[in-house]
Write a structure and sequence with these properties.
Elements (H helix, E strand, L loop, with lengths): L2 E5 L8 H8 L3 E5 L13 E5 L3 H14 L5 E5 L4 H9 L4 E4 L4 H34 L2 E4 L4 E4 L3 E4 L2 H11 L6 E2 H8 L9 H16 L9 E4 L3 E4 L3
Parallel strand pairs: 1-2, 1-3, 3-4, 4-5
Antiparallel strand pairs: 6-7, 7-8, 9-11, 10-11
Helix pairs in contact: 1-4, 5-7
GO biological process, one term: phosphorelay signal transduction system
Keywords: DNA-binding, Transcription, Transcription regulation
Protein name: OmpR/PhoB-type domain-containing protein
Length: 233
């Protein structure tokens, strides 16, 4: 379950939302007005119960200066559209009316956090792949339709070569099938024969450009009868 920081001037025990989250196994960490030091490694999100608008705005300005990694949600007691817009501009990700049903609040928060952390995991995985590819000596430059080898030589590609390279680059160490290349590189409505041959021809020219020895390729490996794979080793 999740751990939530909760900032309110009210007694937390009186909060039906806190009680419901606790009953679902969530851990609630009280955050006091006197001490805004928040350990972002120990909470998954921060929930603020709105006070007077100037007070809430001050809280948000202080908190967002030190907290950037965790989402901030707000329970709005005023329900004012104007104040909610201001809070969103100050960094709140979502405003909920204080009257929101506890179960609805629980499931909405769950969905938001699940989606957020799945996205975060995906971004981390992409960054890890990018780092691995750079470490392997290969970097794609979309703005130039080019690829940089070993951080030194930039090689300009044709549009088809770049499309093929981009598909391989975004899926390192995974065999890309001829069918996937077709979907990426040609309009599916085009009835062009021998597309497998055309894909092989594009890869042939791509290897001649980026490989020191096209007959023993360092980057683009053939997966027999299936397609091609970008090797990061």
């Amino acid at each position: 379950m999740y751990t939530i920081g909760f900032l309110t001037l009210q007694t937390m025990k009186k909060s039906a939302h806190v009680e419901f989250l606790t009953s679902k196994g969530w851990d609630i960490v009280p955050v006091t007005e006197e001490e805004f030091s928040i350990d972002v490694d120990k909470i998954d999100a921060l929930v603020i119960q709105e006070e007077a608008m100037p007070v809430t705005c001050r809280w948000l300005m202080e908190i967002t200066r030190q907290v950037t990694e965790v989402p901030i949600y707000l329970l709005s007691t005023s329900g004012g559209k104007h104040s909610n817009i201001v809070y969103l501009q100050l960094g709140v990700e979502a405003c909920f009316p204080i009257e929101i049903d506890q179960e609805e609040f629980y499931y909405t928060m769950t969905n938001l956090l699940v989606r957020r952390y799945k996205m975060g995991k995906h971004i981390k995985e992409e960054n890890r792949n990018m780092y691995s590819l750079k470490s392997a000596g290969l970097e794609l430059v979309p703005s130039n339709l080019s690829v940089v080898i070993d951080g030194e030589e930039e090689i300009i590609l044709t549009r088809k070569e770049f499309q093929a390279m981009e598909l391989l680059y975004n899926n390192p160490c995974r065999a890309i099938t001829y069918e996937e290349f077709k979907e990426k590189m040609w309009d599916p409505e085009q009835n062009e024969p021998e597309k497998n041959y055309r894909i092989a021809n594009v890869v042939f020219h791509l290897r001649n450009k980026i490989e020191q020895n096209p007959m023993n390729p360092r980057f683009i490996k053939t997966v027999r009868s299936k397609g091609y794979m970008l090797d990061m080793k």
